[in-house]
Amino acid sequence: MSDKPTTIKEIAKILKISVSTVSRALNDHSSIGLTTKMRVKKLAAELNYEPNQKAIQFLQGKSHIIGVILPELSESFFSTAISGIEDVAYKRNYTVLLAQSHDDADREKLLVEKMKTQRVDGLLVSVSKTTSTYEHFEVFKKLNIPVVFFDRIPPIKDIHYVASNLENGTYEAVNFLLKKGHRTIGMINGPTTLVASHERKEGYIKAMISNRLKFDPSLIVSCDLSESGTIEVMNTMLNHRRKPTAIVTFNDYVALFAMRHTRSLELEGIDFVSYANLPIINYMDYTPIASVEQFPYKQGKKAADILIDLINRPKNETGTEQAYFNVVVESELIIPNPK
Amino acid sequence: MSDKPTTIKEIAKILKISVSTVSRALNDHSSIGLTTKMRVKKLAAELNYEPNQKAIQFLQGKSHIIGVILPELSESFFSTAISGIEDVAYKRNYTVLLAQSHDDADREKLLVEKMKTQRVDGLLVSVSKTTSTYEHFEVFKKLNIPVVFFDRIPPIKDIHYVASNLENGTYEAVNFLLKKGHRTIGMINGPTTLVASHERKEGYIKAMISNRLKFDPSLIVSCDLSESGTIEVMNTMLNHRRKPTAIVTFNDYVALFAMRHTRSLELEGIDFVSYANLPIINYMDYTPIASVEQFPYKQGKKAADILIDLINRPKNETGTEQAYFNVVVESELIIPNPK
DNA sequence: TAATTTTGCGCAAACGTTTGCTCACTGGTT
DNA sequence: AACCAGTGAGCAAACGTTTGCGCAAAATTA
């Protein structure tokens, strides 16, 4: 017993009606009588009937699967984002095919291929750090399979994406420090090539301007984000003719390195503000006094929603005048309750 | 152009041969002449033909998808494990359908349902903390869909599982502390209901015995793993007539709480050993001096391998004499290089 | 009562691929 | 000349479901 799953055919045979009637009855089609519907549904329930998704997907040419390619699940940003993606997907009756590129461009390419052969209905991508060409995504455009990028956006035109804007979060952060009385605020920024670095800088400058303070470019330093790199720029900062009393760091790791360094120099009283990456920050003894939140869950959710909308949009008229979704999730300064 | 993907039919029509010949040619069937094969393959390549997986899956009743249900991807154990799963899956031409239970038994149940309707070929599960009934997995047994549990194993019989054995890792840990000269070693253990707690305790006892030391049960305390709970049992320990000079903690969080507490009491010189959960431990100022590693990547890999083996095993003779895979991955003490 | 509409259901095609059979050749052996 | 084995290829069924179309019976209208 309980060998092969029940099919619509068996139900039809037992009830001595046609398969089409059974199908329509189960789908509440209007042309089926109430009594027949009831009979069919009752038997279907008894037999634990479940439609064979593969057959349906095959018939309709839809897999109801969305592919997700992201760099690293062990980065909490992504593991949180995937929760948002997952939740949306499940709510809208899609399932998530997951793959990590591990920040390897070649692997990413391969995964994109896999996604294609699996015939996903749509693709969600956060590109790897090492990806420098983007043709492998073009294929999907040709196949009319929507692709939505999130967080790590490739520098090309005509794409859908969801990203966070760090400018206003940074603005808030610097403003917060200024309100606290700081007048000399340093910033350990990332590589200047990153959009994210640029946004941070802009936010910093805007905050200074709106407070009618003059902006000193030498207080913003670039860093490779490693521990040694951080220590190096920290030393530069500390030897600056205007020694900062507060520092905004590129991320929590940099903040950690920097704070550790100041403690090793037995310097006290520098306030740090960082960008939220690590949940573990809650368990630390020394933490930044505030943090710019990027809402990864929300970003994932939004991206998935857009993707599924795109999948289900009415067939566009032969490709002309495509609209591209470019959503920006605003970042926000989070100030923890002081213990 | 590039509208719908190429099908085998179109190739057949162009070449004026039958679909079956095309199919066989592409699959290198022996009954097709070499010249025909070449012609077919050439054209297929030109047309960017790719077999429609959905059709094949439907035909063969196989989805080549394995479902993975685990509690929390933000726990590094799981995000590492999934990498192992993923790698195996991709190597063996399966794809991974991911879902998180967020340690919610109801959600887990729902996800299991989803996996069933998606007709996954197999299921990999690490059960949620709150799961107390296990019938929802029984369905799969009936459907002959293999289920492999990993790390968090339900306390029921006749299941496949991969888990880590913490006993020997704990043994090594305690041994290590003894070699370092400690004679009074405390252990902050988890709830006694957990298998994992039991294994830790056993390892502890074995180490003591093999060093011809007598085991003092009062040095092992149970804890709910919260911060307040940890502080409480730490106080008990510190007031013990034999104050421990080293403590083995249930996990890194507990270690963190405990270490923070001792520092707040300005106690120095207690050595801590923990179990590896947090990569971030590398960034901390105060860390355990050693850690028991559970090899999540390896566990995930192993579990996925077993699952796929099960999926592809020859049809077992009407269910009799099923063998169950119970694989134990040994844990291991990792002693970081002193800085 | 006849003509028309509505209601309820069945027939059969279609989706893309695989595979068991069948069949027509070709070449070689009696 | 008759037979057989082997080779190469086609026919058609099958997988489970949806859906356009058609058709009969029942209900409504004239």
Provide the CATH architecture of the largest domain in chain A: 3-Layer(aba) Sandwich
Number of strands of chain A: 12
Which protein chains are joined by the largest interface, and how many residues does each one contribute? A-B, 51 and 50 residues
Strand pairing plus helix content of chain A: what structural class?
alpha/beta
Strand content of chain A: 15-25%
Q: Write down the CATH topology of the largest domain in chain A.
A: Rossmann fold
Radius of gyration of chain A: 27 Å
Average predicted local confidence, pLDDT of chain A:
89
The shape of chain A is elongated
Ranges of chain A with pLDDT <50 over ≥5 residues?
A: 316-320
Question: What can you tell me about this protein's structure?
Answer:
Two copies of one chain form a homodimer. The termini of chain A are far apart. Chain A is an alpha/beta fold and 339 residues long. Chain A folds into three domains: 1-48, 434 Repressor (Amino-terminal Domain); 61-156 and 297-325, Rossmann fold, CATH 3.40.50.2300; 166-293, 3-Layer(aba) Sandwich (Rossmann fold), CATH 3.40.50.2300. In chain A, the strands form two sheets. In chain A, strands 2-1-3-4-5-11 form a six-stranded parallel beta sheet, sandwiched between helices. A six-stranded mixed beta sheet of chain A has the order 7-6-8-9-10-12, with helices on both faces. Chain A is elongated, with a radius of gyration of 27 Å. Chain A is built from twelve helices and twelve strands. The longest helix of chain A is centred in the C-terminal third of the chain and has 17 residues, at 296-312. The interface between A and B is large, with 51 and 50 residues. The first copy, chain A, binds a DNA duplex (30 and 30 nucleotides) through residues 7-9, 17-21, 23-24, 27, 29-33, 36, 51-52, 54-56, 58-61.
